[in-house]
Write a structure and sequence with these properties.
- By secondary structure, the protein is mostly helical.
- It has a single domain, classed as Up-down Bundle (Ferritin), CATH 1.20.1260.100.
- The chain is 80% helix and 0% strand.
- The longest helix has 27 residues.
Length: 172
Amino acid sequence: MMLAQRSANPGKAKAIAVAALAAIAVALLGALSTDLGTWYASLHEPGWKPPDALFGPAWTLIYACAAAAGLRAWWRARDRAEREGILLAFALNGTLNVVWSLLFFRLHRPDWALLEVGALWASIALLAWFLGRRDRAAGWLLVPYLAWVAFAAVLNASVVELNGPFGVEQVR
């Protein structure tokens, strides 16, 4: 009976696998873009910044919620065009997510990352709205992501304020 249930809906299993792999790919690209080396260690940070060890679990939860949101909307999409819209919205968001990490951690430009984080936040809001039109719970699953990036933007602004200007050789 279990085998019959599994083979009855191979499309659902494929969608789950694709969503999981997409979330893992964005997480991996973001992690590979993050360098917590000497430059990062030399930054002055606000006293209210959470410990670095909290960021990994937070992002894991966010990516799991985003994958679940994508699946819920995908399964309720009316047609191919709507599914393509979901893929496009996630691709835009994933790209902006990775670009933020590249700007902040690899290029050592928190000031540029601060400019970019507005686009990242807007892409999450757009994604929540777009998915929420098809499935209300899918939209709500993105609220933690939206809140975390809003918090990260405030943290990013504090880093810029405490350490700027960037892009010039500095003696610390």
